[in-house]
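Entry:
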Amino acid sequence: MKADPAVQRRLLDLADADAELNRVQHRRRSLPELDQIGDAEREVRAKRDELVVAETAFSDLDREVKRLENEVEQVRKREQRDRDLMAAGASAKQLEDLEHELQTLARRQGVLEDEQLEVMEQREALETNVTKSRDALTEAEEKLSEVQERRDEALSGLESSEARLQRDRDLITKALPDDLVALYDRIRSRGGVAAGLLQGARCGACRIELDRTALNEVREAAADDVVRCEECGAILVRTGENR
């Protein structure tokens, strides 16, 4: 393949544009915010799980409080019923039975109220725990949102840079012969740099020095010959000093 030496030198501009594009794409993949978002998401999930545990424990204890309240209320109703029967004029045997039952009810009510007080204290502690868990979840969600905003801002800047670099690259390729661009893109698709300046005996793409035989072949090639590095396959761009 042949191409005017001045046209071949434009490949260096194309390689520079591609190098910048690669750097932008690498920065996109390695944004610190990406790892930070992963950490923040895990923290949010953990805080949500903690809140579920706290709310479940509070709900269970709240049901226990209501059960005890109902039992206390039933005992009080039974006590009031017995007192009403006594006031209505019961027989001596009935009075004895009612007094015995009232004593039993009083003891039962005392036990229930002690249990109720203990459970209510526990519920109060769990309610505080639920509040703290909700606050912790809110804080974790806010941190996640902040990191996501920073990521979006960084990506927006990188996307703008990438779009500008792509426009510059398109302008360069439009000014180059199609077959030369096709060769360049084919080399680039394999990874690495597709074109580099020959500096003395060193390839500017892979930074490896050509051996004497290869260097002589390059120097003996016509100025418009498109020559390539025997090490990396990149197009070697020559100037008047290294031909």
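The longest strand covers residues 195-199.
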